[in-house]
Amino acid sequence: MGENTSIYRNPNLLISFGVTLMGIMGVSLIAPTLPNMANALHIPKESVGLVITAFTLPGAVLAIFAGVLADKYGRKRVLIPSLILFAISGVAAFFVDRFSDLIFLRVLQGLGATALVSLGTVLIGDTFTGINRARAMGANASILSLGTGLFPFFGGALALLSWNYPYLLFLLAIPIALITWLYIKEPELEKDTKMLEYLSSALAYMKTPRALSTFTAGIVTFIVLYGAVLTYFGILLADLFYVKPFIIGVFLGIMSLTTAAFSTLAGRLAAKTSKRNIIGTGFLLYGIGLIIVPLIKSVWLFLVPMVIFGIGHGLNVPALQTITAELAPTQYRGAMVSLFGIMIRAGMTIGPALLGLVYSLVGDKLLGLHAVFYASAVLAITTGFVGMILPIKSREPVTRRTY
To answer: What's this model's pTM, rounded to 2 decimal places?
Structure first.
């Protein structure tokens, strides 16, 4: 696609938007409902994060297989069953009244979501090159953040009826599956490559220093986002300021809308400075926002750290996704982006549990919920400084190629 052609006319980009929105709906829609859910199902605070962990864990384990299958058999054959499973198991959660049943359905839904965000990125990598790829990644990250911003509004509003009403919205994945079946355009893939040869070549790309540093940054990004912001920020507001789910959704929504606004700058920023500097700056902004949270005494002043965090996230995510799409050629891109997806889901899974441990060991006796935000700030700032200072050499792996 030429540099002057509108990227928004490409059906693959529009499909990637829909697939990405479904992938992130699984957490952002229900994040504001966690306090009400905990009360309704009698769940202790240290166990609330299991609702998120159960959803993210299958992707942390199985995303690489989704990428391999997408590389070998095509993007469509993986995406459509994934969307259908995501929808059915998500809507089924509306009808449960036991925590154990909810966790089981969240695992199934997480299995359906395993390929969604990763293959949305793969579609962009397949379709665009050069500055258009950076622009498309920025647009997709903006859509992701817009959804992450709007879904908490919807989730918080529906949770005023009951904690389980937001789960009905997962039915939207069905029309996305139909559109994918009808309009997706897939690249020609090397289907005759033997599996062992394919895996050996893909692994060579995964072990490069640039890939490893990108994967590490992805893990830390989502430890901080899912642990501090999406899990414990709402609990802090509910416990210390008696804030209702809808207002929690407002704060999370404003953070994500800020991310969406800054994600659209990805293409222009990538042309002016290195992606490493963009990512490092994003992490430093994470840390600044998180350090401010424990210092705030008035509810609406929480807009300040949420906006700062949102700016950092808007810088960080498009740069990470663009680097990931560039790490390997087309026939290994599904595996590479899916491995990055595993790192992301590992961060999503580790974040609530790790910060729950911080709270139980330190916060419960000393700093309260503030300990979660101080620990997250230290992790983010350290990652930012290391990423900006440590030189990462980019090298092309030696592989036996079949293309």
So the answer is: 0.71
- For 212-257, write each residue's pLDDT tens digit: 888 899 999 999 998 999 889 988 998 889 888 778 878 988 887 8
* Torsion angle defined by CA atoms of residues 101, 106, 107 and 111, in that order, rounded to the nearest 10 degrees: 140
Cα separation, 371 vs 363, whole angstroms: 5
Distance CA 307, CA 254 (A): 7
What mean pLDDT comes out for the span 334-362? 82
- Cα 256 to chain centroid, rounded: 12
- The rounded Cα 365 to chain-centroid distance in angstroms is 32
**Which domains are delineated in the chain?**
11-185+200-389 (1.20.1250.20)
Enter the tokens of residue 19: 């697939």
| 328/330 Cα distance (integer angstroms) | 7
* In contact, 148 and 140? CB cutoff 8 Å: no
Expressed in percent and rounded to 5, the helix, strand and coil fractions of the chain are: 80, 0, 20
pLDDT digits 0-9 by tens, 349-385: 789 889 988 888 886 666 788 999 999 999 999 999 8
| Helix (DSSP H) and strand (DSSP E) numbers for the chain | 17, 0
What SS3 state is found at 337? helix
Please indicate whether residue 46 or residue 77 has the higher confidence score (pLDDT): 77
Beta-carbon neighbour count of residue 394 at 10 Å?
Answer: 12
